[in-house]
Amino acid sequence: MKTLYGQYVGYLTAVCARYIPDDDEVKDILQEAFIKIFDSMDKFSWRGEGSLKAWMTRIVVNDSLKTLRKKKTVPLPATLSELPAEEEPAFDAVPLRIIQEMIRKLPDGYRTVFNLFVFEDKSHKEIASLLGIKENSSASQLHHAKALLGKWIKDYIKLKDNG
Predict the structure, then answer these.
(1) Beta-carbon neighbour count of residue 78 at 10 Å?
(2) Which pTM does this prediction carry?
(3) Which of the listed CATH numbers 3.40.30.10, 3.30.1330.10, 1.10.1740.10, 2.40.128.270 matches domain 2-70?
C-alpha cells in the first residue's frame, strides 16, 4: 500500500487540484479517495497497462465532483459573455505551472467543465449527465472557461514581454 501510495500520490494530487482550488480540501479528498482505493482493491480488475491509474483517477475525479456538488458550486451561470472568443492563445509561451494555477483560479463551474472536457475526455452529453446540467450549459461553460483562460494567458504574455 505504501508503494502504491508513493507511486501515485503526486499524480492524483494534481488531478484533484484541477477541480479543487483549496489545498487543504485537496488533501482531505485524497485521504478519502485513498481509503476507498485501498478498501476496494478486491473490486479492481486488471485490464492492461494503465488500468490501475485510470481506475484510481476515476475515484479521485468522482470524489472531487461529489465535493463540488455538496458545496453547490456546480454549475456556475455564464457571466463572462463580454470576453471575446478569439484565436487560441499561445499556451506554449506560458510555463505549465502557471497554466495549472490559472486553471485552478477559474470559477468552480467553468473549471469543472473544462477539466472534464479537456483532461477526462468527456463529451458535453456526459458532462451534462454527471453535473445535472444541460448539454448547452456544458458547452457554454467550456467556451467561457477557454475565453477566460485565453485572456489570462494573453495578459501574462503581455506582462512578461513588457517586464
Answers:
(1) 14
(2) 0.77
(3) 1.10.1740.10
